[in-house]
Amino acid sequence: MSASLLSLSGLVPDQSVHAAPPINVVVPGTGVQLTQVGDDFEDESWGFVPNGPKSSEDIDEQQRQPLGKSTNGRWYEGAKRGYPDIMKRVATPEGGIPGSEGSLLLKSLKTGIPGKITNEMHQDDFICNVQYRVGGPIPVSKSPSATTRVYLPPIEEWENRNGPHFAFRAAVKTTIMEPSKFIFAPAHEKDEIYWPGLFILRETKKVDGKLVNNLFFRVRSDRNGGDFRGPDIETTGWWTLGLSFTPDGVVHYFARPGVEDLTREDYIASALPYGYRCETFRTFFYNTVNKDDGKSWSTGFIIDDPKVFVIDGARTASRPAPTKSR
């Protein structure tokens, strides 16, 4: 299995998304909100202690302890890839959730190895502290889901590069059978962590001699680990994204323009990434992506009101995600 962004290069054929959601799909935001996780970024003193230099284990196998964390304990640095260079509370852009005064800007310059320039596409992670604050991973029997609002800046403010610029993803676990290293020894069970999600891509093409920008989603991933194309993004500004995980181990992907709660009409696709059936939901996170040339900043995306929900046991009533209030 490869979780590398390189699979977004177009070498894997696109797949069609489903025309309609399956009957058992759970709309992200259904159920009870777990208020001990997520954030609204309304605290004017919101901050992040970087404890740099940041980790780059995915490139050079270097974890650089201690890891960074937010002052409110709700976010932490990923040991695999480090944190965005800018995590700044900003005034909520126009069109955001009514009553919201604060949101968070995520942006990166040096996404590779600290102190080096790789001139290759890399990413930073901004990870929500879920499983440690709720007492462990959430089983999919509770149909966990995560939602977020994301502000996409005007296209002229994007990094001048085709490919992925941002992502909203989850960390989930399944169990696989791993062959033994010893002859005649039986295979053994192993926990396998993988990271499905929605990537936001920019593609610039020449049409009738003119350069035309196209934005679209890619979904991670199909049964073979290949990302497939989702819907076009017809407008910048605020979007609502969501991921849900049902007891059958399937991942469901949703998106809609604006900040309204998600509905069945916002369904994109359902998938078993890598052929796995997920067993537990561990956390969600964001990726900031750039070409790591030492001078090109990643596109600045702004996030607001990320939340986690569960349908608890016998509880079946659907409750929409609550509107932000002050």
Task: Describe the model.
The protein is an all-beta fold and 326 residues long. It has one domain: Jelly Rolls (Sandwich). Helices cover 2% and strands 40% of the residues. It has two helices and 19 strands.
Based on Cα principal axes, name the global outline.
globular
CATH architecture: Sandwich
The residue-averaged pLDDT reads 88
Number of strands: 19
**Largest sheet: number of strands, sense, barrel closure:** 9 strands, antiparallel
H-E order:
EEHEEEEEHEEEEEEEEEEEE
Structural class: mainly beta
Strand content: 35-45%
How would you summarize what this structure contains?
The protein has a single domain (34-310), classed as Jelly Rolls (Sandwich). The protein is built from 2 helices and 19 strands. It has helices at 57-60, 131-134, and strands at 32-33, 48-49, 69-70, 75-76, 86-91, 102-107, 122-128, 138-139, 145-152, 163-178, 188-194, 197-207, 210-220, 228-232, 237-245, 251-257, 267-271, 280-290, 301-310.
